[in-house]
Design goal:
40% of the residues lie in helices and 24% in strands. The chain is α/β, with parallel strands linked by helices. The chain has a six-stranded mixed sheet, sandwiched between helices. Strand 1 and strand 2 form a beta hairpin. Adenosine-5'-diphosphate binds next to strand 2 and helix 1. Keywords: ATP-binding, Nucleotide-binding, Transport.
Length: 255
């Protein structure tokens, strides 16, 4: 089976602190792969190393068989990697629709900010624009965002803002999607919806999903495999049932 994402001995240091320590893993195409671990374990740092926000101190990162170590975030996004952030990174002065269109912007030949002119001219760029809108409409339907499509994201409840951010990442049609604590701050009903959507996204799109998550119930229900980190090191990687019973995982979570 082919490998969507590979980390080879990835280490990230901040001065004397080793945030991620010699992490190696291969995530298969189509897998839902989760990363768990206590606060400060190095989970977000690992995502930042993958998406190019941080340069790795040592080791290498591979996306669909191609080395992306040291590439900038934009270049990596163009190669098919999208992500969400632990803390929301939406444009609050934009509507839901505009935030999702921004996710498409990677694909647009013309600058996003020229859209009004493009539409006026009805040239080839305008045809592209219609295609982009259709894709965004599909995501709006999928994530049940119809009722808030024209509302500023700053006016939406937190849970819904997180879904918009998920939608924006999906709008880029990634082959690999990184979700950093997608369920944090969601109520129970929203968490159930999220599980439903993640499964739906996998069923509908040709996609590999990595999830950082604290909620063990959620993680075990959606993941094919889980990697547990502690103090930047990988403790164990395997099937959910095995990982949650691993003595070091139990210890890391219970104190
Ligand atoms: P997690 O997401 O597992 O809670 P992080 O990856 O955010 O953990 O952080 C791992 C460690 O790396 C922490 O000790 C954190 O303070 C440190 N760290 C993360 N980013 C930076 C940074 N930009 N500069 C300095 N230290 C950082
Ligand atoms: Mg984090």
């Amino acid at each position: 089976m082919s490998i969507a994402l590979a980390l080879k001995r990835v280490t990230k240091r901040f001065g004397g602190l080793i945030a991620t320590d010699d992490i190696s893993v291969e995530v298969k195409k189509g897998e839902i792969f989760s990363i768990i671990g206590p606060n400060g374990a190095g989970k977000s740092t690992l995502f930042n190393c993958i998406s190019g926000l941080y340069k790795v101190s040592q080791g290498s990162v591979w996306l669909n068989g191609e080395e992306i170590t040291g590439a900038n975030p934009h270049a990596i996004a163009r190669k098919g990697l999208s992500r969400t952030f632990q803390n929301l990174e939406l444009f609050s002065k934009m509507t839901t629709m505009e935030n999702l269109m921004l996710g498409r912007h990677l694909y647009m030949k013309t600058n996003f900010w020229n859209l009004p002119t493009m539409l006026w001219e009805k040239g080839p760029a305008a045809k592209d624009e219609i295609k982009h809108r259709e894709k965004v409409e599909q995501i709006i339907d999928l994530l049940d965002l119809q009722s808030v499509r024209n509302r500023y994201t700053s006016q939406l409840p937190y849970g819904q803002q997180k879904i918009v951010e998920l939608g924006r990442a999906l709008a880029a049609e990634p082959s690999v999607l990184l979700l950093d604590e997608p369920a944090a701050g969601l109520n129970l009903e929203e968490k159930d919806e999220l599980v439903f959507w993640i499964n739906d996204i996998r069923r509908l799109f040709d996609i590999t999903i990595l999830v950082i998550e604290h909620n063990m119930g959620l993680v075990t229900s959606i993941s094919d495999r889980i990697m547990a980190l502690n103090f930047g090191r990988s403790i164990v990687t395997g099937k959910p049932e095995a990982v949650i019973k691993h003595p070091e995982v139990v210890k890391a979570y219970l104190g």
